[in-house]
Specification:
alpha+beta, Nuclear Transport Factor 2, Chain: A, 6-stranded mixed beta sheet, 35% strand, globular
């Protein structure tokens, strides 16, 4: 296994499991691209990627990464969690650069009632964060 991929996967899982995303954000490129099934256009930037990861960890108590598949400089990780008793499941595909920084994430979510709940909860979380940031 590529040493950068191994470090990234370990850091990602440990950060998500602990709820402390600071070690992970050190591995996010400033120009990261996030491709989500919720939006037609990709999002760019470290701040947005961090916000989405924080939202997932905050709105799902049991959000975690499980199986992983590696190919060259990419790793796909299966995630699972529950929201209001509904399963949310999908795969995140992370691409890393030669320095081990993640430069893109392509998100695939299983379309079910959990996905609908995810949309609602993620939107509420992001609105709350943006409102708090605007107020301060």
């Amino acid at each position: 296994m590529n040493i950068h991929i191994e470090k990234f996967v370990c850091t990602l899982k440990e950060s998500v499991n602990s709820g402390n995303l600071d070690p992970l954000t050190e591995l996010v490129s400033e120009n990261v691209v996030l491709i989500s099934p919720r939006h037609e256009q990709p999002f760019h930037g470290k701040d947005y990627a961090k916000l989405i990861l924080q939202a997932l960890c905050s709105i799902m108590d049991d959000f975690n990464y499980q199986r992983s598949w590696i190919h060259d400089d990419e790793v796909a990780l299966e995630f699972k969690g529950t929201l209001d008793g509904k399963l949310v499941q999908g795969i995140d595909v992370f691409s890393l650069d030669e320095n081990g920084m993640f430069v893109s994430i392509d998100i695939f979510v299983k379309m079910n009632s959990g996905f609908k709940e995810l949309i609602k909860c993620e939107d509420n979380y992001i609105r709350d964060v943006l409102a708090r940031n605007k107020a301060s």
